[in-house]
Aminotransferase (Phytohabitans maris), 340 residues
Amino acid sequence: MDLGFHGDLEVGSGLVDLAVNVRRAPMPPWLAEPIAASLADLAAYPDPAPATAAVAARHARPAGEVLLTAGAAQGFVLLAQALRGARRAVVVHPQFTEPEAALRQAGHEVTRVVLPEASGFALDPALVPDDADLVFVGNPTNPTSVLHPAEAVAALARPGRVLVVDEAFADTTGEVESLAERRDLPGLVVVRSLTKTWGLAGLRIGYLLGPADLLARLAAVQPLWAVATPALAAAAACASPVAVAAEREIAAALAADRDHLVAALRDVPGVRVEGRPASSFVLVRISGGGRVRQALRDLGYAVRRGDTFPGLGADWLRIAVRDTAVTDGFVSALRKTMEA
Ligand SMILES: Cc1ncc(COP(=O)(O)O)c(C=O)c1O
């Protein structure tokens, strides 16, 4: 199984991209302007202090509880490298594959806890072994689009364990089950990304929230000046009240577009959508998914294969939520492939 496969590898040669979960919209001026202005300061080494303070204020935490990273992806590497002493690392699947890849790269043996399809991939905290001292879970989860109740995730925290909650897509849900502001849970590290909603995948910006002593250990293995000045400008801008209000509006519009996609998919014979997808993508089960994915490519649409996610297989496809016009074009192509 290729843990290093990502949606961007599906895209290319003029295909309509329903594989990558990055929102593509013009940058608002409150974001574009500080990024552009930062280019005047590129001779200076980056200073993360102002952006760190802004992110800390957003999440009502002291600055020592924030570590800015070159995307959420760097956060997984820091965790895996700094916590090499962990005895039992557990990854709750199906989920984004980079946490497991980073753990393996750092020499950890990884125990997989695979949430069953029969339960709609719902999190059952009892499935995580008691002796796990490093646990990774996603909320909302990529690729299932399941949003776990905050209390179910919080139930995994305990003294002697580092609990890593990947909230790269929390803003797409309006933050309703986020643990970003929970300072009372022992060993909790929340991973956030600014690359999805704000279309900044190429800029590389994200952050970790957690206990100051633990973040200091992670910072110690981070390369010097890991986050570039334009990325710091973006982090500060995205922490402002204006940005948070915009995130809520985007999440509401996304919910309407998602409802449209889910209703259209449920109308196609042979396509199954489980439960209530909560994020910017929808997971579907289609018998012969491998063939359907290829046929969709022939009709000009790229979707994300499911077979590289532990716990899924070739019959699973992940589809990004786009505007209703793109969705309608896609669903009519899907109908054609299902009738073929
Ligand atoms: C669930 C999840 N977490 C984290 C990431 C990495 O995000 P970033 O671009 O901030 O490194 C991704 C990217 O696809 C993701 O899907």
Observations:
- The pocket of pyridoxal-5'-phosphate is lined by residues 71-73, 96, 138, 142, 166, 168, 193, 195, 201, 206 (CB under 6 Å).
- The radius of gyration is 20 Å.
